Structure formats: structure tokens, C-alpha cells
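Appendix B. One record, verbatim.
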Amino acid sequence: MSNVLDVVLLLALPASGKSEVRRYMASLTPEQCRAEFPMGPTVQLDDYPYVHMMRRTSKEASKLGLGAMFFDADSLPMKEPLDWGTLVELLNEDYDDLVARRRPAPASAATWLLDRFDAARRKVGAAPALGALDPKLRAEVVAALEPEARQLLKDKNDGVPDTLEGRTIVIEAARGGPDKAPLPLPEPLGYRYSIARFSDAILARAAILYVWVTPEESRRKNHERTDPNDPGSILHHGVPMAVMLGDYGCDDMEWLIQHSDRPDTIRIETRGRTYHLPVARFDNRKDKTTFVRADRSQWKPEDVAALHSGLSGALERLSRLASVRA
């Protein structure tokens, strides 16, 4: 078995199978992880809960006549493209909390979250808007968001283990650009921009597992998985079609692999440093992951075997690449 992977960036278009892969990996025992995958028990980070809370913030602000903040409507893409970087800055903070074993305990989870949104926006050069609100109106937004923000904080803190020794940190994100957009995608779109926003602490340890589906398959699976009654769910949330075509009509992973100066890597230049991140693709163009959304008691042995084999092969390849990284 190759070296255990340290940090895995789990990247793909929406509904491609990222969350199902995470759920499957979380279902394995530590012994299975060590024996059958080059991974320790996983600790998982994801930027989707922040996207959901940005939409909720926009909705509550709009009710008060404050403007939509992050999204003009649930069916539309984000207003400020730099917020792709905002999301990465939030993940950087979550990673730092994992490493330091910090579990924030603010008096108001919603105030904590809105302050984090503003601070992350400042880092990427976007205008912070929430701190400038009239205090009374901001308090109304905070009150409306508090229950969901409190649950997000609980989930975040519950995911911080007492030690990271022997564990693999999995960070999930999806990035892309408009349907049929020419490559390379301009900043701040695509993986090239967002990966470069990850902290040096992450990039120095990271390897990329890319779940490979076509944009057409991504749109089909997105429609299939959508549960309108569970918009905050990792496994069952739906991405509006305008967003699927405008933000995820294509992505730049293949372009980045082809244009790297080292095989099986992507080259990222950021903050005066150059990183060559190892990358392996898990081929999910013929669906191997949808069954994971069901209760585990309903998983068929043949489906589990196909997913396990394909995922194990991709991760083993990734581990070999990571072990020889300069």
C-alpha cells in the first residue's frame, strides 16, 4: 500500500458523485481505510453549507428591502464572482480550526457567520456588506438565520477531532464556467483561481481527486437528486439550471492537466510560489455512486464492489503520485 494521503481536494462538477464518495468513505472502518485505501479515517470539509447560508442571508435581507447581498434569487448565480474566493477563504479558516482543534462558541452563531462572510470577502477584494447594515435591520437578519447558523456551527465543531494523527482531510468543492466558454477560464472562475486561494498550509499537503463526469451528465444527475424540501442537504440539494449552465456549464480541470509542465499534476502559481498538485481522476461517467444516497441497508453488493474498486484504484494512483512529489 502506498503512503496514506494527507489532504485530498475532492473536486468535480455538481452532482458528479463527490458527496456520495465522501459518504462511502465515511462508511468504512479505520481498518478498511488502512488496508484497502491509501487513506486514514476521513475528516471532511465542504463549502456548500456556506453557499446555502449565503442564499438564506440574501433571502432574509431581501425581505427587509436591503438588497439580495449574495444572490438576486435562488434560481440565479451569485452576484459577485469573487465570492468563489470567499468560499475558499472560509474553508481555509475551517482547516486552520481543524489543525488547532478550535471549536468556536460565539454567543450568536448567525453574527459569527455574517462576520466571517465579511472578513472572507475582504481577503479576496470583494466589498463586505453585512457589517454596514443598519444595526436594527442586521439584528432582524441575525434572528432569522440563528437556528440554521447554530446547526452549521454545531456540525463544524462536531467535525473537529481531538487529533488528526493518521487521518485524511477531504475538502470538497465544485467550480466551473459558462457553457461552451473558451479555456482557460478567466479569474475568478474555475479551478485555477480557486485552488490558488487555498492556503499554503493546504497546498503543501494536498492532492486532487477529480470525479469525472461530463457537464451533460452533471446536469442530468443534478435534476435527479434534487429534493426541493431539503435545500440544505449535502446529498439532495439541487442547483438551479441557470446556475448549472452559467457557473458549471464547463470546467477547466482537463485544461489544467494538459497544460501543466509535469505529468499527472496541475501547476498552481500563488503568493510567489509554484505548486504541482498530484491529480487522479475517478471515472464516474458510467454512474457508480448514486446508490450511496439510499439507506446503507439498500446498497447492493455489486454496486458497492464497482464503486470500491474504481475509487480504490484512483486513490492508490493518487497516493503513488503524491509520494514522489518534489
